[in-house]
Amino acid sequence: MTVGVSGCSADEVLRFGWPEGVTPQAEKMRELWTWSVIAALAVGVIVWALIFWTVAFHRRKKTADGSPEELPRQFQYNMPLELFCVVVPVIMVVVLFFFTTTTERSVLDKKDNPDTTVDVIAFQWNWEFRYPGTDTNPAVPGEQQVSTVGSSTEIPLLVLPTGKTIQYNLESTDVIHSFWVPEFHFKRDVMPMPKKNNQDPSFQNTIDREGSFVGRCAELCGTYHAVMNFEVRALSPDKFDNYLRLRQQVNPATGKPHTAAEALQAMNCGELCAPQAVTTQPFNTDRTARTAS
Questions:
Q1: Is there a single domain that holds both residue 218 and residue 240?
Q2: Do strands 177-181 and 211-217 pair parallel, antiparallel, or not at all (unpaired)?
Q3: Helices then strands (H, E): number in the chain?
Q4: Which of 33, 204, 239, 254 is least buried, going by the fewest C-beta atoms within 10 A?
Q5: 181, 21 in Cβ contact below 8 A?
C-alpha cells in the first residue's frame, strides 16, 4: 500500500533513493549503497527492538502499597555482553570497509589500452574536448586534432561511444574546476597542474546506453561557474565512428573540417544527433537583457 501511494516502482524502492546511472561503475556504487542501507536498517530494527524491550520489561515498577520495588537486574560488568558489544561493531566496520574498498577499486580501475581517449580541458568558464589520434589536416599528421570548444553562445558537445572503455584525461588552464556528469555518479577535480596533490588526472568508464546527459563544473571557479555546462552525447559505436570520420572531413560549404554540430546534422539520426545541446542552454551574458527576479 505504501509503495503504491508513493508511486515508486520496485526498482526505485530497491535503490533507496539512489539515482539511476548509465555506467557499470555507477551500478557498482548503487549496489554498495543498497546493501549498506539494508544493513543499516537491520541494525536499526535490532536497536529499536532492544530499546522497546528494555522500556517494557526492565523499568522500575511500584508495589501494591505504592512503594517502589527493587531495581531491575543490572548488566554492568557482564563480560560476555561487553565483549559482544565491542566485537560485533568491529566486525561490522571491517565488513563495510572491505566492500567499500572493493567498490572503490572497481570504479577507479583503468585498462592499459582504452578503446577511446578524450582530453578534457577546462577553462573559465567553458570546456574543450580533444580526441587524440585524430587528424583534421591529413597533409600534416598530428598537427591538428578533432576538437570541440564551448563558447558563451554554444554548449560544447562531448560525443562518446557506448559499450567502449573511455579514458578521460583532465586538465585545467587556469583555476581548479571539476568534471561532473550526474548520470556517471562520478566527478573528479580538474587541476591546473597534472597530478597536483597526488591526484590522478584521468579516469575511465563505459557508457551503457545512448542518450544525452548534462555535464557540469562542480567546483566553484569564479563568476560564471554556475553556467559552465557541457553535454555528453552517447552514440552507438558505428554512429560514433561516423561522427569522427565527418569531423576529419572538409565541409564543402565552409572549406573547413566539420564542426560537431555540422557532423551531427549530417548524420541525420534524429534527436540523438541534434546539432545543439538538449539538456541545457547557453547563458545570456548580456546584462541589459536580464531583469531582477
A1: yes
A2: antiparallel
A3: 6, 12
A4: 254
A5: no
Q: Which residues pair with 202 in a beta bridge?
A: 169
Which CA distances in Å does 219 have to 44, 210, 233, 246? 36, 27, 22, 34
For residues 190 and 155, what is the distance between their CA atoms, to the nearest angstrom? 19
Query: What pTM, to 2 d.p., does this model score?
Result: 0.81
Report in angstroms the alpha-carbon separations of 67 from 61, 72, 113, 225: 9, 15, 81, 70
- Segment 220-235, tens digit of pLDDT: 998 889 999 999 999 9
Residues 6+ positions from 72 with CB-CB distance below 8 Å: 58, 59, 60
Cell of 73: 537486574
3-state helix vs strand vs coil in the chain, percent to 5: 40, 25, 40
Q: Domain span at residue 65?
A: 10-108
131 belongs to a structural domain: yes
Model confidence pLDDT, tens digit, residues 56-83: 877 666 666 666 666 666 667 778 888 8
